[in-house]
Amino acid sequence: MSWKSFCKGHEVLIKWLLLIAGLGFLYLWLKGKKQSKLNTDEAAKVKAQRAKIVEPETIVQCQSCSLHLPKSEAIAQEDRFYCSKEHLNSLDAQGWLGSAAWRISPNQDIRPEGLTPDLVVIHHISLPPSDFVDRNSTQFIVDFFQNKLGSSLHPYFEEIADQKVSSHFLISRRGEVFQFVSTQNKAWHAGPSSFLGREKCNDFSIGVELEGDSEHPFEAIQYESLAKLSTQLGAVYPNLQFAGHSDIAPGRKTDPGVQFDWQQFRTKTDIPVEKLPFGLQSR
C-alpha cells in the first residue's frame, strides 16, 4: 500500500470517528435538555403542591346561619356569602333578604314593641316621574331612599330635595330587588294612613315599591319578582294582607294605580282572596 493510500484511508476513518463522536455529543445534549425540562416540570409541580398545602382555602361565613365553609362552596351575593340557595332566598334573623341588593336607608325607625308586620303596602315610584328608560332611573330611586339624590340632576329633584322617605323593598323594571330597611324596622313609606281602622300603617306594614307609574303597564318580570318576594315574606309573616297605597291613603295617594293588575298578582302568588281586602279590581 502506498503512503498516499494509507493517509487517505486514515482521513476517512478520522471523519467517521468525528461524525460518530458528534452524534454522540448531540444525543447526550438532547438527553440532558430533556432531563432538565423534566426536572423543571417536576420542581414546578412539587412547588405547586407545596403551595396548595401551605396556603389553605379561604373560609367564609354564611350570612344567614353563620356556618363556616370554604369560599369555593359558598354562594356569593354582593359581598356576602350563603351556604345554600334556601338561605340565599329567605329572610335572615335580622329581617334581611339574602337575594336582594342591600342599600341601607337612614330613613327608618324601630317598630312599636310587640308589633310584627301583617300588611304589605304596594306602591309605585319613578324618578323623574314617568321616566324609567335606563338603569340611571333606578339608581335615582335608590339614591333618593338613601338621601343621596343630587338635586341639580333634574328640576323635579329640587322639589323633593328635602323629603326623607324610604321603603323596605324596590323592584326595578328589570325585576331586580333592592332592600333598604330590615322588615323588623319601620320604613317611611305610607305616611298618614289607615288600614281597616288601624292608623299609622308604617308601624305594622312592609312597603314594596314598583318602578313605574299609572300610565304604563308594569313588566311581567316585576310581577314575577313581587310574587317571589311575597312568598318569601309570607314564610316569616304568615298573617300578611296586601293593599295598595291608595287603599290606605285614599284621596291623597293613587299608587300603585290602574296599571297594576291585582288579578295577575294573585294568580302568580295564589294568595287567598281574604288577604286582599280591597278586591282584585284595578284602581
Topology:
Blueprint: H1 3-54, E1 59-61, E2 68-70, E3 75-77, E4 80-82, H2 85-88, E5 101-102, E6 108-110, E7 119-125, H3 135-145, H4 155-159, E8 169-171, E9 177-179, E10 185-187, E11 194-195, E12 198-199, E13 205-211, H5 220-236, E14 241-244, H6 245-248, H7 262-269
Parallel strand pairs: 5-9, 7-13, 7-14, 8-13
Antiparallel strand pairs: 1-2, 3-4, 6-10, 8-9, 11-12
- What is the H/E string? HEEEEHEEEHHEEEEEEHEHH
**How would a crystallographer describe the biggest sheet?**
6 strands, mixed
Percent helix range: 25-40%
Q: What's the overall average pLDDT, rounded?
A: 89
The secondary structure category is alpha/beta
Can you tell me the overall shape? elongated
**Over the alpha carbons, how many angstroms does the gyration radius reach?**
35 Å
E-strand count = 14
Spans with pLDDT under 50 lasting ≥5 residues? none
Number of helices: 7
Strand content: 15-25%
Order of strands across the biggest sheet?
A: 5-9-8-13-7-14
Query: What is the rounded distance between the termini?
Result: 126 Å
Can you describe this structure in just a few lines?
The protein has 283 residues and is an alpha/beta fold. Helix content is 36%, strand content 17%.
Folded structure, characterized:
The chain is α/β, with parallel strands linked by helices. Helix content is 36%, strand content 17%. The chain contains seven helices and 14 strands. The chain has helices at residues 3-54, 85-88, 135-145, 155-159, 220-236, 245-248, 262-269; strands spanning 59-61, 68-70, 75-77, 80-82, 101-102, 108-110, 119-125, 169-171, 177-179, 185-187, 194-195, 198-199, 205-211, 241-244. The strands form five sheets. It has a six-stranded mixed beta sheet, with helices on both faces. Strand 1 and strand 2 (68-70) form a beta hairpin. Helix 5 packs across helix 7. The longest helix is centred in the N-terminal third of the chain and has 52 residues, at 3-54.
